[in-house]
Amino acid sequence: MDEVVIVEELSTKSSDHVIGRLTLNKPKALNALDLDMATIMLDALLAWQSRSDVVSVIIDSAGDKAFCAGGDIVSMYRSMVEAEGGVPDFLETFFKTEYTLDYTIHNYAKPIVVWGAGIVMGGGMGLLCGASHRVVTETSRLAMPEISIGLYPDVGGSYFLPRLPGKTGLFLGLTGGQMNGADACFVGLGDNLVAASEKEALIERFMQHQWEQEDLANQATHLLSSLKQPDEIPHSNIEQHLDLINSLCEGNSAKEVVTSILQADVNGDKWLSRAQGTLQKGSPITMHLVYQQCQRGAKMTLAECFQMEVNMSCRCGESGEFQEGVRALLIDKDMSPKWKYATVDDVPAGIVEHFFSSPWEDSQHPLASLTQGSSLT
Questions:
Q1: Residue 146 is a catalytic residue
Q2: Number of C-alpha atoms within 13 angstroms, CB side, residue 200?
Q3: Which residue among 34, 60, 70, 71 is the active-site one?
Q4: pLDDT reading at 376 higher than 50
Q5: Mean pLDDT across the stretch 242-262?
Q6: Are 199 and 115 in contact (CB under 8 A)?
């Protein structure tokens, strides 16, 4: 099928109830979320939310490699090149739509099950983290690796990262550290760790269930609890290293935390060494943005976090740092971004603060009408 998102309504054993299903369908692009996909998903969710016959929603993807490897940053790159230092109109539209979709998932009135197998990164994390029922498998690889492209962990990262256990959110945001299924469940970003082979069984259970109109979330929880776990449960790197992560990230500035992580003796641990390497090569501006978003987001509502992130993301689009990061990774593929500043210590405080300023008057803000407990229409 050619649709970038396959929208279906699955019949159930209770004939007057259906399951909404959204299947991301760009497997060759690792189901990276583009503007068309986000629009289709948002429109379907808003339509289903007001229908009493839709009792739950399943969001999955085509192919086995990735649920969603991120956002469509190649299109973003093209718009940044054309905008020549301004805020690209495309970026404003994309982030408004994507964040509204993520916010809608967070506040949805019916259970949403996300099948987070394979790669779940960036924009994929935005889809997963707000769902009421987040399923991960032995193949899951979750991360927010935006430090490598001069962006920052958006899609609600300002809300969910500082609410993870201890300082794990700050560490994961700075290092792009990968989580497996056990890690995701340990930090609270996954609800069910099941075998990757169980997806069809999940769908079959939801279709064969005699749905009652009350307690939809509990019914979904019960159905998921009957799925098989992987034969081998992955080992949680985060749980093993939690005390170390907390101690490395207890500094009172981005400089202190970054220096502490980079100078840590990790005794050859592959997971920690990879995290150090990613941070070492990452954008010094992003290092400050991650630290600040975790500080500020910890005190904000979800709506306020998304409003802040639209400001930050569009500022990233005009700054040139994001453009350079994408160029190095995906356009020229030289893997040698020329960041604006050499180290975290070189970034002026005024530059950092500018990323948190709004490019718009309050009434013109793309998410001005986003309020806690409701979604944009």
A1: yes
A2: 2
A3: 71
A4: no
A5: 98
A6: yes
Pairing of strands 18-24, 5-11: antiparallel
User: Which of 20, 70, 122, 123 is an active site residue?
Assistant: 123
Per the structure block, which two tokens stand in for 298? 């910890």
Q: Quick check: is 9 catalytic?
A: no
Q: Which of 34, 72, 102, 146 is catalytic?
A: 146
Which residues lie below 8 Å from residue 298, measured CB to CB, with a gap of 6+?
162, 163
Mean per-residue pLDDT over the chain, rounded: 96
Q: What is the pLDDT of residue 86?
A: 87
Instruction: Determine whether 190 is an active site residue.
Output: no
Nearest one of 66, 56, 90, 62 to 76, comparing CA atoms: 90
- Under 8 Å between Cβ of 223 and 134: no
CA–CA distance from 189 to each of 132, 142, 355 (Å)? Answer: 10, 10, 27
Query: Which of 34, 154, 183, 318 is an active site residue?
Result: 154
- How far apart CA 93 and CA 340 sit, in angstroms, is 26
Mean local confidence (pLDDT), 117-135: 98
**pLDDT at residue 120 tops 80:** yes
Q: 373 catalytic, yes or no? A: no
pLDDT range class, residue 375, cuts 50, 70, 90? very low
CA 374 to chain centre: 20
